[in-house]
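Sample intake sheet
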Amino acid sequence: MKLRRTFAVIAAAAVAAASAVPAYATSYSTYLSKVSDSEEREVQTRSYVSPMTTNRNATRYKNFIKAKTKLVQDSDYYWSAGISWQPVKDALLYYIYSNKSGKYKLTGKTTDTFFSCDAGGTYFVRPVTYDYNDKRILGQISNKIEVRYNDYRWYDDYEYEEAEEEYKCITTGGAASFTNIAAEAEAAPAADSGSYSEEAVYSEVAIDDGWYGMPVYDNEEYSKYAVDGFKSAAQTPLSTFSADVDTASYANVRRMVLNGNRVTPDAVRIEEFLNYFDYDYLQPKNGRFSVTYEYTDCPWNDEAKLLMLGVQAKDVETEPNSNLVFLVDVSGSMYSQDKLPLVVESLKKLTAEMTKKDRISIVTYSGQEKVVISGARGNMRNCIGELADTLVASGCTNGEAGINMAYDIAARNYITDGSNRVILATDGDLNVGISDKDELSEFISRKRGSGIYLTVLGFGTGNLKDDRMEALAKDGNGNYHYIDCAEEASKVLVDERKATLITVADDVKLQVEFNPALVDSYRLIGYDGRRLANEDFTNDAKDAADIGAGQSITVMYEIIPAKNGTDNHRYQTQTGNKTDICTLKCRYKKPGTEKSKEFSVTVKAKDYCKYSETGIRFRFAACVTEVAMALRGEKSYGDVSVKAAKARFDKLSGDELAKIGWSEDFGMLLENLRY
C-alpha cells in the first residue's frame, strides 16, 4: 500500500501506568454479565463516567432522564461570551442548541460544562449519554438563556484590551438567566496600522538556514546517540542489544521530506527505517521465533561483507480481548490539523476494528486530566466517535497527571489474559509536571510491573518532542509510532493492529558472538540507543523491548573478514574453527513471567553468496540501510549515498517489491529526496 501525504481529521491516544493490577480487576465476560442495578451503582462509586445500563427500570437510568440542569451566563477568557451549567450525573456529553436563525438548531457538542458562544441568541443545553448497546439517550432540556455577543479585536502590538463586564438579568420562559453587556475598551494607538487574528500571533516561524532553501524548524527535539565504529572480533567478540520494534523515525523523516524540510540527522534511527517494512519472513513452526539470515558483499564498502538477520515473532490466530485506554493530549499545542484532528481520525479507525468483548476508555489531559468515558464496549462506535469529535485543544500540558489517570483507568477495566494497553497520542510537548526526558524515563519505568503496556503515537510538526516520546515507549513496556497522515494511522492501528497491540514476548534481547578466526572486525548498524552491557543479556531483571504478534526485527552488521585470527569465548574450545561466522542468541520472556527462555542460530561461512544471488529481502534492506546511513551522516564507512541506493532500488522489479510490505512508500520517499 502506498502511503500518500494526506492530512485528515484524526485521533489517537495513549499512555502511562499503574504499578500493580488492583483487586477489582476482573474478567470482562464477568463484567458484561453484570449489567444490572447493583453493577451500575458500583461503577458510579468510582466517580468515572461509564455508559448507561440497558435496563430501563434501573434507578440510574430513571434519574438521568429526569435530571435537568441550570444554565447561566459566563465569559470565555477575554474575548467572547459563553454559557455554563451544572453537571448532570451520568451525562457523557451535552448538546447545545441556539436560535440564531430564528429556529432552534444544534449548535455544538461538548464534554465540558462550558460553551463559548460565537454569536448572540437564545441558548439551551441537553445532557446526553449512551447505553452499552450504543443507543443514545437524551436527558431533559435546560432553561433558556439569551446571550448578547460582542467580539474583541487583536491589535498589531500583540496586546488586547479587556472589556469591563456588567451582567443584566433577563427572564426567558420563566427561568432567570444572565446576559453580558460588554463595552469594548478603547485601544491604545498601535505602532502601525491594522489588526491581527489570534492565529497570526501564534503562527509557527520557520527558519531558512540556506540548505537548498528548505525551511528548518528549531523547536523539535531528538535524542543524540553516539555511533559505534568497527570493533575487533578478537577483543570484543560480543555485540549485545535490545530489540526495537518502533517505526516512528521513518514516518517522521518522510514527513520532513514531503514537507520540503531538511532532514534532521538525529531524527534518523536506522533500525526504525529497517523495521518499518514487512519482509515476509517465514513464520515460526515451533516456538515463538524464527530466524532468517543472508551473508554477502557489502554494496557500499568493497572491503566488507554485509550480514542481515531477520527475527520473526509468531502471529496469533485468536486475538485476546483488549482493554484500551486512549490518552489524548488536548493541550493548546495540539491545535493544528496534523495533530488533534488526525488523532480523532486515528481513534475512530482503531475503534472500527474492536468488538463487543473489548473495552475502550478515553482520558484527556491539558491543564487538567479528565476521564471522558471509562469501560465502554468496543463496538460502541457511535458513542466513541461522537465523544472523540468533541475534543478541543487548549491549555498547558500536564502529561504526568494524564498518564497516572490513564493507567488507573486501565487497571480498573483490566482484562485477565487480555491485551491491556494505554495508547498515548501527543506531540510530546510537556510543559507542566515532569518534562525532562530522564525524569520521564524514571517515572514511566515504575509502571512496568502493572501488566499494562504502552503505545505512543506522535503527531505534528514544528514542536515535536521526539526524545520524550521515545523515552516513554522505551522505558514503559511500549512501542512508538509517528502518525503523519491518515494512511499511516491505518497502517499502525488497522493493518498492523495485532503487532501494535498484542504482545507475545517481553524483554527481547539479542547477542551476537563473532568468530575471530573468520571475522576481523564488525559494526552493528543502528540500534545506537538500544545497546546493552554484555552481562545484561542474562540478567532477567534488565528491561528490554517487547515484541508484538507477527512482528519482526531486522538487523544489519557490516563485517571485515579476517586474514589471520584467533578464537575466543564460544570458539575458544573450537580451535581453528573455520566454519562459523557468528552465533546469534536471543532471550525473551513469555508475557507475565519472570524467567527468560533462550534460543540460538549459527551463521555458517558456507552460506555466503554473491550480492547478485541474494533475495529481495536483502537487496531491499540494503537500500533502506544505506539511505538511512546517508541521511544520518554516517559516510565514513565506505561510499555511502542516497544516489547509489536509489540506483540499486530502481533495478528491483515490481514483482519482487510486491513481496515487501510498504515498499512502494520507500520508492516514493526516494523520488522526493534531494541529494
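Comment: The mean pLDDT is 82. Residues 320-499 form a domain with the Rossmann fold fold (CATH 3.40.50.410).
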